[in-house]
Amino acid sequence: MQALVIVAHGSHLNPDSSTPTHRHADTIRATGAFDEVKTGFWKEEPSLREVLRTVESEEVYVVPMFISEGYFTEQVIPRELRLSKWDVSEWESDGLSADTATLTAEDTGQTVHYCGPVGTHRAMTDVLVRRAETVVDDPDVGEGFGFAVVGHGTERNENSAKAIEYHAGRVREMGRFDEVQALYMDEEPEVDDVTDYFESEDVVVVPLFIADGFHTQEDIPEDMGLTDDYRTGYDIPATVDDHRIWYAGAVGTEGLMADVVLERASEAGADIDAAIATVREETRETTATGD
After folding, report:
1. In Å, what is the CA distance from 63 to each residue of 6, 33, 147, 200?
2. Domain 2-118+255-289 classification at class level
3. Which of 14, 125, 190, 268 could form an SS bridge with 170, CB 3.0 to 4.6 Å?
4. What is the rounded CA–CA span in Å between residue 84 and residue 116?
5. Are 47 and 81 in contact (CB under 8 A)?
6. What keywords does the record list, in alphabetical order (predicted)?
7. Quick one: which H or E segment has residue 266?
């Protein structure tokens, strides 16, 4: 038997924080690729400390629903799962290249394939682009559009900016959008000045966040000038300084995120190629129908 456990931060204050994680777990569960699909959270139930005890399978693939490598993926999750002999060097990562470490859970004896976070996987670039397609309602969006990837940015974790720059660079290499820019909330270049960085009249803005919350629903819309008060709502697109801003909301809410989770598990050794193909097709159809 093989199981998948998706672990995320969760929140005691924002009930929507765990919604994308549960939804992607449901999508994967429906494929039948794993005997069990579970979720575990730092700030919600089931907790990271207890989640492996809810799994009957002896082989478990653990995928962190986090954007970057750092404190949670390198310290909190391995500690709470009680992964024997864990050391961050197991990933041999430069801050973007964490792959898989196979370890034993001390209290359950399960074999755990601990994967890198979804946010640094190359497939996340496709989800960012899909998010643009969704908000514009055009599967061919690109020509005549600028594209902004927005991150939090922080001096506490330099890897946070690395993930933003990495995906912005990959989108740029596609040559699909006229302009591509990485922007941040707490460092330069700031999302507050989004229109200063684009000549394109139309700009798609996609936050590289797992779930919608305070930052994506309140801070960023107000910072960009989409509205003076998030509680009054805003148009999509909204006109700011003679630009049309197509604000997409958190990338983690896009259905194709389930594909990134599966890609991580597949690279760790799970035999799930058919499930990956199914998820890609089903999320494309869902996007097309606007559901």
Report:
1. 5, 15, 28, 37
2. alpha beta
3. 125
4. 17
5. no
6. Cobalamin biosynthesis, Cobalt, Lyase, Metal-binding
7. helix 257-267
DSSP one-letter code for 194: G
Say which amino acid occupies 129: V
- pLDDT recorded at residue 285: 64
The number of residues in the chain equals: 291
CB atoms within 10 A of CB 21: 24
34: number of Cβ within 10 Å: 23
Model confidence over 30-56: pLDDT tens digits?
999 999 999 999 999 999 999 999 999
E-only strand ranges, the chain: 2-8, 36-41, 59-64, 100-104, 111-115, 145-151, 179-184, 202-207, 238-240, 243-247
Query: Phi/psi of residue 194, each to 5°?
Result: -50, -40
pLDDT category, 291, cuts 50, 70, 90?
very low
Helix (H, G, I), strand (E, B) or coil at 123: helix
What is the pLDDT averaged over residues 235-259? Answer: 96
Q: By C-alpha distance, which of 140, 145, 134, 143 is closest to 288?
A: 134
Residue 97's CB: how many other CB atoms inside 10 A? 11
Instruction: Say which residue the tokens 């958190």 belong to.
Output: 250
Domain edges within the chain: 2-118+255-289, 123-253
Give the domain 123-253 fold: Rossmann fold (3.40.50)
